[in-house]
Amino acid sequence: MNIEHQFVKNGSVTEENIRFYHDYGYLIAPGLVSAADIAALKKDTAKIFRGEYGTVEGMLPVQPGETDEDILKKYVAIHFPHKLSPHIKNFLGHKGIVEVLKGVVSPNVKCMQSMLFVKAPGKAGQAWHQDEFYIPTRDCSLIGAWIAVDDATIENGCLWIIPGTHKPAYMMPRVDYNGTEYADVDTIDVSSYPKEKIIPVEVKSGTVVFFNGYVLHSSLRNKTTNNFRTALVNHYMSAERMLPWDQDGKLPPTNDLRDIVMVAGTDPYAYKGIKEANKPYLRTEVLNIKKD
Ligand SMILES: O=C(O)CCC(=O)C(=O)O
What we know:
Jelly Rolls, binds 2-oxoglutaric acid, alpha+beta, 8-stranded antiparallel beta sheet, about 15% helix
């Protein structure tokens, strides 16, 4: 049987929504973010890439007369934009998003990273992967809240997902990738899944797509000539678990990275304090992250 998307209606997460999330590993909340908030995020995106919050290595100087579009066309994404923009930092705790997280994750939730995808026309997509490969939480609570700032379509590189693939909860083997669709040098071979189980998640601006850290997902190249596919993705997990995340070797090994933002409930590890460790960085055109 094919899966029909299930929606969170009017921002209130139901028992049925929670069951769907646990069964299929994702959930869609249309209109969870207001048009005013989306407009503010869009403005902030331009401000970030104009370097108005401070420059980040690799950012190109703004030339006289350059429009926001001219500038944004040069970029794929920035990691940890909440370290630059107070507006995005505030947004990590968006009330509607937090309500869903409390329903599907835990009453106690922390945020560990944000990523702001511009995905300008022509930019490559992300190969099949599980977020848990990059962010080790190991308790299946890892969740991405993928906020569509622009409408996301197959043409401009929306998310694709294979519902239910989070269930075995193990890290799937990765194979080399030499094609042109994705920015990555490896991928997960999904050829054994029936085509109808691999589904696009086309959504309108203001929609939030929640997906589990073990569920297989990807996105294709933005094949339009003038449509951006802007999305803010925040990653959260249950505050009860520690976070042994060294950022692919960028940070010293740790049992519990304490560069977090609590968004709901209480933090059992509050006695450790919060330690700034991550710095914002630009996503490169080719992503070469390989590990065992
Ligand atoms: O937005 C995309 O194109 C990919 C996002 C993604 O793979 C993720 O957030 O893990």
